[in-house]
Amino acid sequence: MTIRFEDPNRPNSYIGRTVPRPNAARLAAGQGRYVDDITLPRMVHVAFVRSPHAHARITGIDAAEAMAAKGVIRVFTGPELAKVCTPWEGKLDHLTGMKAPPQHALAVDRVRWVGEPVVAVVARTRALAEEAADLVMVEYEELPAVTDMMSALDPDTPVIHEGYDDNLCFRKTNEAGAVDETFANAHKVVEGWFKTGRHTGVTLEPRVILADWKAGEGELTAHVSNQAPHMLQVLLAKHMDLPESRVRVVCGDVGGSFGVKVHVYADEVATAAISKVLGRPVKFTADRLESFVSDIHARDHEATGRIAMDADGKILGFDVDDWTGIGPYSIYPRTSAVEGLQVTNLIGGPYAFDHYRVRSSTVFQNKGICAQYRAVGHPVAVAITEGLVDKAAHAMGIDPIEFRRRNVIRDDAYPVSTAAGLKLEGLSHERSLDALVEAMDYDALRAEQAELREKGIHRGIGIASFIELTNPSPFMYGIGGARISAQDGCTVRMDPDGSVVALTGVTEQGQGTEAIMAQIVAEGVGIRPDMVRVVTGDTRVTPFGGGTWASRGAGIGGEAALRAGRALRDQVLEVAAAMLQAKAETLDIRDGVVVDAGTGEERLPLSEVGRIVYFRGDTLPPELPRELMQTRHYITSNYPYAFTNGVQASYVEVDVETGFVKLLKHWCVEDCGRIINPQLVDEQIRGGIVQGIGGALFEEVCYDADGQLLNGSMADYLVPMSAEMPDMIIRHVETPTEEGQLGAKGAGEAGTAGAPAAIMNAINDAIRPLGGEVTAMPFTPERILRALGAFED
After folding, report:
1. Fold exhibited by the domain 35-143+204-257+261-294
2. pLDDT tens digits, 417-461
């Protein structure tokens, strides 16, 4: 029998409350310990010589002058490291026909993007390593670069990888119903073209690794700014031919990630391999300029799509052709094909219809590697879907809110399977729309918009409904053979004084993992959150788990923590019952005290239970435990994923003379299941919206036709700042998942998923009366002015 989450109003409940972050005071006081803060005896530094060409053959390397430079320990080339570190392929077995060329820690014979590491220079300081790296002479034979994704498969386009017939990485078509017949006979068909600019994560802390090989112990310890320590442990062991038990990965304080730090990077693997060769600690820290060419990019998509409706404005089907460029390699171990695959599954997500065809083509190109980044594929799919939905509503003469009301999946229809094949347990599109309209005061806002338009002020309202994939099961990666765990574990131990230590496989990168785990464990055991010490990110001590990605922390890691906490509570009460000569079921634990379950009368402090168990076990019956500790693991089983849903709205003002967009207000209604900590959920949503705003208005990694990065610095790559932020109004609907006891889904990526589409629709709502439309992100002033006819192409 499954125990469900209990009444949150009962005594000692901490679920649903705003509880401060346990690590906030330490970090605010400047006492964080990030990887670059760590200095070990005999530590040296590595700097990388990176390719200045997008595509070239390496014809010679002369490192003599670098080797003679001050402080240099050694110089490594690709062939040298290939002897101690095997290459890898970013491929999933169940993606039939996918191609994934092997990637080495350092380029061996060819370079395939500007920034690919070619030579590693090791010196006593980072500055000395960088100075010596400038002395390495690499000779190249330049080759034609493939940069345009839409022509990457043309017969006359050069093939990037030897042995392949073309530059196709993966192609998937998801089809259901009678698409061609439906579109041929539909009352109205609306078409659109959409482009999402390639962009990257700009984390406060760049990527950094400190690898320490101890030959005497035959063990590698890697301190890494990373999201998934157990994944990295397994893969470092595999490619360096080590037992997994001899690789320890420690992810302490991590200064932001957003998916950037959940992948295997060539320069990080090279650093670990160099440490093994040299037998001493080696540190690599990417500087900000290096990050732009070495960190993963994302969202490089171009799509055409169409939507069919009947005479009543009911959606009949979607038909979309999406292309994405991923750079020269598929990221390891998650693969770069997943983003396009997500698009094939998520188009049309909130709506009820029967006819569906989405094709995604993932192609290689000579640009930086694209991979999973916050809300993988969601912003692309939502922008295409909601862009078509808004165009359809306008073409039918139906208000955008009303059009969505007619077409969303009804709240009482669940569980359902969509035309795309997704199994949805329970969502709340109708309730979410109701909450949004109320929060916006929608009718009054429309009246204000019309009044201001008469005065020449062009404001727009944009709506975007969405679904979000969270709590992934092994059907995300494990089914394809990737050694990425979909489960997570938690060990909860009570110490003699009654305080509790919780060790979790979920990691902390600033999203509040420590806070929610403390709340959940406190809930399960019956103590205050301040009595819980949470430990994360160390493969030597924490239970095996997947780490933090796909908004899985609360729904999977939190579920394991709740079960472990409840198991410890039962164990404590079993001992306390023996001490009190009572029955365990008549007792409870509240605020760290064993009490009578019926009356709440205090019977025994936990410190006394701890004293007896650990120091006077001789007084207990022999069958009772002599240590108060429980471990539980959790993995989803009934549904491949837990889907959340929501709806966002944006209110903008467009200056039609300059093309500038002013964000006035933004609303988000989100249903993430059971809310653990309202403040943390709101922070996640607001942070996600900010990243969505970045993609919509500011962020774009730009290359020229030769594959040269044009804006690889903070002076040229724009990110949203506080001055650009609108007021954000957040509301919630709760539809707990029945999959586990906690009922939590994910909340980390919803803001990013919906914000770009809402902003796009708001801009178009403002400029459509002037004959303008923009569908290529970011929506820069130039693109808006071109849409308004201010320039001639």
Report:
1. Aldehyde Oxidoreductase; domain 3 (3.90.1170)
2. 999 999 999 999 999 999 999 999 999 999 999 999 999 999 999
Q: Which long-range contacts (CB under 8 A, 24 or more apart) does 450-456 make?
A: 453/769
For 441-539, where are the alpha helices, taking DSSP H only? 442-453, 513-525
Helix (H) or strand (E) holding 252: none
Residue pair 224/249 in contact by the 8 Å Cβ criterion:
yes
pLDDT at position 9 is 56
597-634 confidence digits (pLDDT tens) = 999 999 999 999 999 999 999 999 999 988 999 999 99
DSSP-assigned letters across all residues of 160-220: SSTT-SSSEEEEEEEEES-HHHHHHH-SEEEEEEEEE--EE---SS--EEEEEEETTTTEE
Look at residue 344 and tell me whether its pLDDT is greater than 90: yes
Q: Provide the CATH number for the domain formed by 372-467+640-787 in this structure.
A: 3.30.365.10
Distance of CA 462 to the CA centre of its chain: 25
Task: Please count the other Cβ atoms lying within 10 Å of the Cβ belonging to residue 402.
Answer: 13
Residue owning tokens 């094949």: 421
User: What average pLDDT does the structure give for the chain?
Assistant: 96
pLDDT 10s digits, 347-370: 999 999 999 999 999 999 999 999
The CATH topology of domain 24-32+487-634 is Aldehyde Oxidoreductase; domain 4 (3.30.365)
User: Is residue 586 helix, strand or coil?
Assistant: helix
Same fold, 35-143+204-257+261-294 and 372-467+640-787: no
Can you tell me whether residue 222 is helix, strand or coil?
A: strand
**Which contiguous run of DSSP H or E holds residue 274?**
helix 266-278
pTM of this structure: 0.96
Question: Among 754, 592, 772, 762, which Cα is nearest to 686's?
Answer: 754
User: For 316, what's the count of Cα atoms within 13 Å in the CB-facing half-sphere?
Assistant: 20
Query: Could you tell me how many residues make up the chain?
Result: 793
Q: SS in 3 state form for 723-753?
A: HHCCEEEEEECCCCCCCCCCCECCCCCHHHH
Distance separating alpha carbons of residues 152 and 160, to the nearest angstrom? 10
Q: Is the peptide bond before 678 cis (omega within 30 degrees of 0)?
A: no
Distances (CA, A) of 196 to 51, 323, 691, 706, 776: 27, 10, 14, 20, 6
User: What confidence tens digit (pLDDT) does each residue in 215-237 have?
Assistant: 999 999 999 999 999 999 999 99
Q: Chain-centre distance of CA 516, in angstroms? A: 18
**Phi, psi for 189 (deg, rounded to 5):** -125, 130
- How would residue 790 be classed by pLDDT, with cut points 50, 70 and 90? confident
Where are the chain's structural domains? 24-32+487-634, 35-143+204-257+261-294, 372-467+640-787
Cα separation, 620 vs 612, in Å, equals 8
CB under 8 Å to 152, separation ≥6 — which residues? 146, 167, 168, 325, 363, 364, 365
Cis, peptide link before residue 333, omega less than 30° from 0: yes
**Ramachandran class of 163: left when φ > 0, alpha when ψ lies in -120 to 50, beta otherwise:** left
Take residue 428 and report the two structure tokens written for it.
Answer: 């709340």
Q: HSE-up of 279 (CA within 13 Å, CB side)?
A: 4
Residue 268 vs residues 120, 133, 563: alpha-carbon distances, Å: 11, 17, 36
